[in-house]
Amino acid sequence: MIKPTASDGVEWAGDSGRSGEASPQDWPVLQSSSSDPCDGNNPMTGRPCRLGYHQGYHRDDTGAEWLED
């Protein structure tokens, strides 16, 4: 549905029943990149990395990221 929104002539296409902000249900769920577990733990909280075997940043359930020294 195309709906004019302002006197400046801007038109927006999309679902008029939704606000412009993404809800938590719209975000993808993080999946492990491999079935092998990652043995990294967040040095600040001790929470384990949930990404599985990977290279680069680790990430825990809260979304915090860290690199190993």
Tell me what you see in this structure:
The protein is mostly beta strands and 69 residues long. It has a domain at 34-68. Helices cover 0% and strands 14% of the residues. The protein has no helices and four strands. It has strands at 2-4, 11-13, 58-59, 65-66. The termini are far apart. The mean pLDDT is 75.
Tell me the structural class. Answer: mainly beta
Q: What is the strand arrangement across the widest sheet?
A: 1-2
Unreliable sequence segments:
none
Shape: elongated
In short:
Residues 1-69 are annotated as: Disordered. The protein has 69 residues and is mainly β. The chain has a domain at 34-68.
Q: Which features does this protein show?
A:
single chain, 69 residues, mainly beta, two-stranded antiparallel ribbon, 14% strand
SSE inventory with pairings:
Layout lengths: L1 E3 L6 E3 L44 E2 L5 E2 L3
Antiparallel strand pairs: 1-2, 3-4
